Amino acid sequence: MNNTLNGMAPLPHLGVIRAEGEDAAKFLHGQLTQDFALLGLSEARLAAFCSAKGRMQASFVAFKRSHTEILLICSRDLLAQTLKRLTMFVLRAKVKLSDATDSIALLGLAGPALRSLAGADARPWTCQVLGEAHLVHLYPSDGVPRALWVAPAGTAQPSGPALRQEDWLWGEVRSGVAMVSQPIFEALVPQMLNYESVGGVNFKKGCYPGQEVVARSQFRGTLKRRGYLVHGEAAMQAGQEIYATTNPEQPCGLVAQAAPAPTGGWDAIVSLQTASAQDALHLGKADGPALTLLPLPYALLDDI
C-alpha cells in the first residue's frame, strides 16, 4: 500500500459540464461510449466522446445529481470545445448544457482521508451522497482508494491532511485510467487506453458517434495498440512520442498522461503498439531517454 496518497488535493486541471433537463440522460446516452439511460443515482460512469472515426475528443467521469441533472467532469483544457460540439447535437432534445466549473467545488480524496469520510472502500464508478456533496469513487492507485468530492461551490469542505496536486496526478497515472486532454485530442480510440477494460465502453448500448469503429476494433480482434504504464528518469508529458529500437524511424506509441513519481523519475500511461511492448522503449526519439514497462493494475478484457 502506498503511503504517499493520503489527503485532499485541489483539482484545477479539471472542469465540469452540466447537462440539465428531462432528456439529459437520453441525450448523453446517444453521444457517449457508456450507458446513461440506465445510470442510477448511486452510480458513476467513465465515458468517452468520440469523433465519427472513433477517436476520443474528450473523456468524462459523470454522475447524476438528480433525475434531471448530470455532471460531467473532464479535462479543463478541452471543456470549451467539447461543450460547443456537444451543444451542436442537442437539436430538439430537452436538455441544457453549460459550463458549471465555477459553481462546483472539486477535490481529490485518497487513502485514510477518504476512508474517514466514506467508511469502507467502495467499488469504482459508484457514487455516494454526503449531504450536499457527492463522492465519486475511482479506480484505486497501488491499492489506495481514491474518489472525487463534488459539491456546490461554498460547501464546507471535509477536514483532513492536504495532498499535493502533483501527488494526486501521480495517483491518476498509477491507477492506469487516463483522461483525454488537449495534447491527445483525436489521437486514440477508447481501447488504445484500455477504456473497455476499466468501465469506459458499453458494447450493448445503441449508437453514438464513432460506435461502429469502436465495436469493430473489439469484435474483430484488431486491437494493435493498448494502454501501458511506464517509468522513466526524464520528464514526460502528454503528446510525446515513444520509439522502439527495433523500428527507430517510426513512433510506436504516445504518452497519454504523465506525472513525477514521489521517489524520483516520472511515471506515465502510454498508448503503445502491442508488438513493441517487449522492445527497448525510448522517449521522443530512438536514442532518447529509456523507458521501463510497469505492470498494469488491472486485467485487460480479451478481444471478442
What is the end-to-end distance? 34 Å
The CATH architecture category of the largest domain equals 2-Layer Sandwich
Q: According to CATH, what is the class of the largest domain?
A: Alpha Beta
Low-confidence stretches: none
Q: Average pLDDT across residues?
A: 94
**SSE string, helices as H and strands as E:** EEHEEEHEEHEEEHHEEEEEE
CATH superfamily of the largest domain: Probable tRNA modification gtpase trme, domain 1
Q: How many independent structural domains? A: 2
Query: So what's the overall shape?
Result: globular
Strand order within the widest beta sheet = 11-14-13-12-15-16
Helix content bin: 10-25%
Structural class: alpha+beta
Largest sheet data? 6 strands, antiparallel, barrel
CATH topology of the largest domain: Gyrase A, domain 2
Record field, number of beta strands: 16
Description:
This protein is α+β, with helices and mostly antiparallel strands and 304 residues long. The chain has two domains: 7-164, Gyrase A, domain 2, CATH 3.30.1360; 182-294, Elongation Factor Tu (Ef-tu), domain 3 (Beta Barrel), CATH 2.40.30. The protein is 14% helix and 33% strand. The chain has five helices and 16 strands. The strands form three sheets. The protein has a six-stranded antiparallel beta barrel with strand order 11-14-13-12-15-16. A five-stranded antiparallel sheet has the order 1-7-10-9-8, with helices on both faces. A hairpin with a 2-residue loop joins strand 8 (127-130) and strand 9. The longest helix is centred in the middle third of the chain and has 11 residues, at 165-175. The radius of gyration is 19 Å and the shape is globular. The two termini are 34 Å apart. The mean pLDDT is 94.
